[in-house]
Design a protein that fits this description.
The protein is mainly β. The protein is built from four helices and 33 strands.
Amino acid sequence: MTINKIIKFRIILFLLFFMSVGFFFYKAIIPSGKIVYINNFEKENYFLGKLNPSERLAIHNKKTENIIIANPVYFNLYAPRTFDKAILKYRYKNAAKAPLIETGVLVDKNAWRYNLKPVENRLIDQLSLVWSKIIEVDEMLLIRPETLGSNASTSYSSIKDFISNPPELNKIAAYNYDLNLNYILEDYQASEFTAQNIPALRGAYQFFVYLKNEDLNLNFVFYDLNKNKDSDDFDIRLYFNDELIDFKHILDDGNTGNNGKFSEENIFQFKLANLPEGAYKIEVKANNDVITKTIKSAHKKMAFIHKLELFNAGKEDIKLYTDSNSIQATTVFPESLQIVKINKNNLDINETYKQFEILIDQGTSSEILLQKDGLILSGDGVFAFDPSSLINPKIKKADYNLDVDKSGINYIIAKYKTPEKIGEWTIAKVEIDLAQAYRENSKNSFIISAPALKQEDKKELYFDLIEIELRGRSLLDKINNFWN
């Protein structure tokens, strides 16, 4: 080989090397700030992971699992840099006629909480065909036809008009909409109140209290199971009208091992004065190593939101009260298998790691009798340990659990767009804010949730395409921001 040919060959190799480096550098920084990843289920995609777990999935007409047969399922998105938002596009067949499909991104790893957004809500889709509606961009107000013209307060010309002059709160349901209306209890008087008999709770939870001419005064007793290797710091947060107004950080006990040695009890008082009248939300953000042994409160109104995990401490004969339309229960402890009495109905928890559900007559509160603790209870309402303590300032949720006739709902306000139908396919697009998303090892976790989908029903959600468009700042924007 002549010297000239050797030089040319080396030049070609160097060009190929630099082109390869440039290509991977381009893919890593994505200078435009936009990129699209697609999973059509024909082969595994490195950036857009497959659906999981496999026991909730099946294969049909594809090379990777693309049929959802049980709820929920997850997938991971790998992206070499951060982005501000994701626009998800799903193409699917709702053969199961699932009344509610939602999707979202993981925002809290400890509480395993996803920020859910609507994909398909069949209750709203069906009511929008027969109820009067006002649509403004991606917001809608549905009005029961017989309420129109009955009085001045129900004759709304816009959503702004509705919010500024709303009807009674018990006549409204909402979906994916923060309707911050003042919640005031008429004739409420603060008084001395015997502390509720609240059993030990595990991990994260939230509850409402109502205050009027009284200080917030809560006394917690915590301890640490030390069954994992992570640091078990946790937070207590106080919200009013969904705005964070106070924050306490509780440090780990210093034992970061997984030796199972229980920590000393940590007594913590959360006290705050001069608060306006209204309902306040307290959030305990903790992992499952943290146990709340007791909560002592002088407040008459105190109700836990959506979910409670009762620690298996051996407590028996527990009474709760709820306004939920449906209740789900599960346990991981064989010793906690039991028959739960809900009003006059029985819910037989006869298998571990399986969720059991019961629907309840709407419009009334229900009494729950547990034989023993160690259960995870969830519902679409609140739970209290005294019937007079039930308080729920949240508007009813317009989803598949809601019977608008039995509940007396005349108005539904939602931030939702009915998905597009193309032949036998449904096309849905969902925009998700990634600013608060939990990201680990360059990955975000996403969920597809269809709460009514149960494996024993043998019904299917058939997905043909998942497409994610990521949008963020361009390289030029970052350079300008750096220099400015």
